[in-house]
Amino acid sequence: MFILVFTMSSCEDKQKIQDAKKAAEAQEAAKAKAASEADALMRAPKDIVTIASTSAKTLAAAVTAAGLVETLQGSGPFTVFAPTDAAFAAIQSEVDKLLKPENKDKLSKVLTYHVVSGKVTSSDLKDGQELTTVQGGKLKVSIKDGKVMIGNATVVTADITASNGVIHVVDKVLLPKM
Questions:
Q1: What angle do CA 159, 133, 165 make, to 5 degrees?
Q2: What pLDDT, on the 0 to 100 scale, is given for residue 167?
Q3: 54-61: long-range contacts (C-beta < 8 A, 24 or more apart)?
Q4: What tens digit of pLDDT does each residue of 2-59 get?
Q5: 129: part of which helix (H) or strand (E)?
Q6: CA 29, 30, 31, 34 torsion: positive or negative?
Q7: Quick count: other Cβ atoms within 10 Å of Cβ 61?
Q8: How confident is the model at residue 75 (pLDDT cuts 50, 70, 90)?
Q9: Other C-beta atoms within 10 Å of 141: how many?
Q10: How many domains in the chain?
Q11: Which residues share a beta bridge with 99?
Q12: Using an 8 Å Cβ cutoff, are 117 and 74 in contact?
């Protein structure tokens, strides 16, 4: 009788071990799937506004205040010359005025002066080229000693790919004639 109890106990232990192993494998598979989905989401192309909102807080706030979020999340493609937060800080008093609700139209003009229809990568830019902005103004491109200037702003980071265009980070806010 002792042998039978020991055998049954041994079989029950083996089953518990197998069940625990299956549960651990299922849990690992679920973790791997969740990690894969999160990784895919992080690698998925983001639109211009989403990218700007993670790295250019002032630009993102200005785009929202001007009511341009939906436009810049559209299919595009767009090329955006995105000023850094430091560029906005350099003209903070002007930015503060533009962010007031009564200046929404002026803010929109300033922001759309930074946008060109179509996807213009750094390899497309040529010295002396003029780009027509969505606002209707012209931006002159100059290239000297490998340094790319858009108007009076220097491109500090080029070719940030978005799902609906490309972003070039510039060190100054471009102001159109109003």
A1: 30
A2: 93
A3: 56/82, 56/83, 56/84, 56/85, 56/169, 57/85, 58/83, 58/85, 58/88, 58/89, 58/95, 59/83, 59/85, 59/88, 61/99
A4: 444 444 455 566 777 777 677 667 667 656 555 554 444 345 568 888 988 887 889 9
A5: none
A6: positive
A7: 16
A8: confident
A9: 18
A10: 2
A11: none
A12: no
The reported pTM is 0.74
> What six digits make up the tokens of 19?
């069940």
Report yes or no on 40 lying in a domain.
yes
Q: Could you tell me the residue range of the domain that residue 92 belongs to? A: 48-170
Residue 31 domain flag: yes
Closest CA to 150 of 116, 117, 118: 116
CB contact at 8 A, 158 and 122: yes
Rounded to whole angstroms, the Cα distance separating 80 from 126 reads 17
Report the SS3 class of residue 152. Answer: coil
Two tokens, residue 112: 């759309």
CB 148, CB 155: distance < 8 Å:
yes
In a domain, 177, yes or no: no
Beta-carbon neighbour count of residue 127 at 10 Å? 11
- One-letter amino acid at 89 equals A
